[in-house]
Amino acid sequence: MTATIEAPTTTTSKWIEEWDPENPAFWEAKGRSVARRNLLFSVLAEHIGFSVWTMWSVLVLFLGIKYGFPGPKNIGKAVFEGHLVTKADVLAASGDKFLLISLPALVGSMIRIPYTFAVAKFGGRNWTVISALLLLIPLLTTYAVLKPGVSFSTLLLCGALAGVGGGNFASSMANINAFYPDRLKGRALGLNAGGGNIGVAAVQLVALAVIAVEGKLTADPRDLIAIYIPLVLLAALGAWLAMDNLSKARNAKHAMRDVAKDRHTWVMSFLYIGTFGSFIGFGFAFGQVLTVQFKADFPTPLDAAYLTFLGPLVGSLIRPVGGLLADKLGGARVTAVNFLLMGVAASVVLAASYQKSLPLYLVGFTSLFVFSGIGNGSTYKMIPAIFARRTSSFEEARRLSAALIGVAGAIGAFGGVLVNVAFRQSFLSSGNANGAYTSFIAFYAACLALTYLVYLRPGRELGRV
What is the enclosing helix (H) or strand (E) of 248? Predict the structure, then answer.
């Protein structure tokens, strides 16, 4: 069949009609270069989406007394709403900040499923352009209203709008999944996701640059927002000029209905809460947790900004390693070991909290980011492998994998909400996060047990995934 080894058939609208990455001749002749080009610009757009999505993890650090959020240094010194600031006021303000950073995670998780299927409806290239331009809505809105005296309800609305950045990941992963052969999906999806995830650390580093230039006391959070507006336009332009749509990716009929009936959908979604839910939840919360847990070490919230980027950075950079290890050793095996190590890391964090040891705390929390990054890569490798071993049709496996990626991505992102709710409740009830850390340890133990029982124990229905 010559159609499988010739150049991909395209039209002026950037649609590729013939795509067969499982055919070695096609892949080596033309498929690899086309897939790499789409991967590169997919990573760029997804990276900016992640930065916009998690921007409130840094913006809350800029919000001090003049925005209605008293900190520890204001206790007994500043007048707030007609009375002297108390410790209860500070804890309440901290709770409001956790609520504020939970909203982008919530909205981002909710829109991931429709974003996944938007690729099949509009085409991967077309939807990448549209979803990138949608990022202008939260950026422009927040830039217009983020001034001293702004109401908390307005801030909540802006936080919710930032959730659109969370949808980009799901559509990007579903799109790249269709471009690559099964044997390379772990690596490709790991690079795509890792490049996007690093947007969490990038926005925090950009915030540091703003603070360095303007000073902690005079830094304007709107300047951080202004930097990302042209970057969004650049990402949209790059996708428009360099990416492609796959015609076969449009044949995803009833995929959501079919995967919803499959028990592996819910198993993988639960596991992804433990990996990606941890990564994004900690990414949102880390700076705020530091300012409350170790307030003596961080006189102002912006002091914590010098450390907050570290965890998301290493977690993002190491995500492709999780995909590579999964390609070589099996996704389930890597995922199981990873959950064990996440439980150990969370135990270190808990011990550091009891001992009030900032160095040990940073070691434990950074380890949590590292292992959540590896687990992100290994769990996503498991998804296409599951369907590849249950059907002989590449198109059927691709159809179901894309749908499951959307479902798991949405539920996993909701784990970020759960993380922040756990922190908020723990701080409000006890003044520390020990209750949250204990719940994380228990959850990782449950994920380890589930991975073993479904994918590793002798007699399981699937081969190595």
Answer: none
Query: Could you state, in order of their start, the residue ranges of all structural domains in the chain?
Result: 19-456
H helix intervals, 54-147: 56-62, 87-122, 124-134, 136-145
DSSP at 12? T
Closest CA to 175 of 41, 276, 52: 41
Q: Are 453 and 138 in contact (CB under 8 A)?
A: no
The residues with which 300 forms a beta bridge, in sequence order, are: none
Q: Report how far residue 149's alpha carbon sits from residue 169's, in angstroms, rounded to the nearest whole number.
A: 34
Query: What 3 state SS string does 120-170 have?
Result: HHHCHHHHHHHHHHHCHHHHHHHHHHCCCCCCHHHHHHHHHHCCHHHHHHH
Q: What does CATH list as the number for 19-456?
A: 1.20.1250.20
Q: What is the pLDDT of residue 458?
A: 83
Please tell me the predicted confidence (pLDDT) of residue 443.
Answer: 98
Which has the closest alpha carbon to 354: 267, 286, 293, 427?
293
- What element of type H or E holds 69? none
Q: How far, in Å, are 17, 59, 136 from residue 248 at the CA level?
A: 7, 41, 30
Q: Which residue has the tokens 């701080």?
A: 427
- Rounded to an integer, what distance in angstroms lies between the CA atom of residue 359 and that of residue 73? 23
Give Cβ neighbours of residue 241 (< 8 Å, ≥ 6 apart).
none
CB contact at 8 A, 183 and 274: no
Residue 173 contacts residue 405 (beta carbons within 8 Å): yes
- Cα-Cα-Cα-Cα dihedral sign, residues 154, 157, 159, 161: negative
List the structure tokens of 229: 């507006």
Distance from the first to the final alpha carbon of the chain = 31
pLDDT in tens, 336-394: 999 999 999 999 999 999 999 999 999 999 999 999 999 988 998 888 888 877 777 77
The model carries a pTM of 0.85
